[in-house]
């Protein structure tokens, strides 16, 4: 059975980003994101896709937009117009990752089996937020704390949630 995994970095107040950009720079989190998502399809909204300088290597990008005329000129990118269409394209894959933004996370939550959340230990003013989780539906199976250091200006914790069923 396919697993849908939401992967995100969110502040204590669930802030994800502002003006289509991240609010922090955490190199170890980027490495973890790359390690987990490489070789798997990544599902995202148009704004998230447009925040990348170019498509990420070794991943099929499925970009959701309401704009029926939107096109992307890269072989590893597909445009769809609903989350359901994106999930249909990935149904033969073992894993598919939801990578944002806020609206896509919210739509995908009901289909999500696992959440890989990097909780950034600070609060930020943002225009995009990760949805509030109903703790009754999710169990924490892993927590790994990382204190700030010379490469990371903020403390953060990797938290893996699995859906309770």
From TrEMBL:
Q: InterPro entries this protein is in?
A: DHFR (IPR012259), DHFR-like_dom_sf (IPR024072), DHFR_dom (IPR001796)
Which residue ranges does the record assign to the DHFR domain? 3-163
GO molecular-function terms, A-Z = dihydrofolate reductase activity; NADP+ binding
PROSITE patterns, sorted: DHFR_2
User: Per UniProt, which keywords does this protein have?
Assistant: NADP, One-carbon metabolism, Oxidoreductase
User: Tell me, what's a Pfam family for it?
Assistant: DHFR_1
Q: Which Gene3D superfamilies match?
A: Dihydrofolate Reductase, subunit A
Q: Which reaction does it catalyse?
A: (6S)-5,6,7,8-tetrahydrofolate + NADP(+) = 7,8-dihydrofolate + NADPH + H(+)
EC number(s) recorded for this UniProt protein: 1.5.1.3
Q: Name one GO biological process term.
A: folic acid metabolic process
Pathway(s) where this gene product acts: Cofactor biosynthesis; tetrahydrofolate biosynthesis; 5,6,7,8-tetrahydrofolate from 7,8-dihydrofolate: step 1/1
This protein's GO cellular component annotations are: cytosol
**Function, in words:** Key enzyme in folate metabolism. Catalyzes an essential reaction for de novo glycine and purine synthesis, and for DNA precursor synthesis.
Which family does this protein fall into?
A: Belongs to the dihydrofolate reductase family.
Protein name in UniProt: Dihydrofolate reductase
Q: Specify the species.
A: Cellulophaga fucicola
């Amino acid at each position: 059975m396919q697993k849908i995994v939401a992967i995100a970095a969110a502040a204590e107040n669930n802030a994800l980003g502002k003006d289509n950009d991240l609010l922090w720079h955490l190199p170890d989190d980027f490495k973890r994101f790359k390690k987990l998502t490489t070789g798997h399809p990544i599902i995202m909204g148009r704004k998230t896709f447009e925040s990348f300088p170019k498509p990420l290597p070794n991943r099929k990008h499925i970009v959701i937009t309401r704009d029926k005329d939107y096109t992307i000129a890269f072989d590893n990118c597909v445009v769809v117009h609903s989350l359901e269409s994106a999930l249909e394209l990935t149904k033969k894959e073992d894993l598919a990752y939801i990578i944002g933004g806020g609206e896509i996370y919210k739509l995908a939550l009901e289909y999500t089996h696992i959440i890989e959340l990097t909780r950034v230990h600070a609060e930020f003013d943002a225009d995009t937020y990760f949805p509030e989780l109903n703790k009754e539906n999710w169990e924490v199976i892993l927590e790994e704390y990382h204190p700030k250091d010379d490469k990371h200006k903020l403390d953060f914790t990797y938290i893996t949630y699995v859906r309770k069923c």
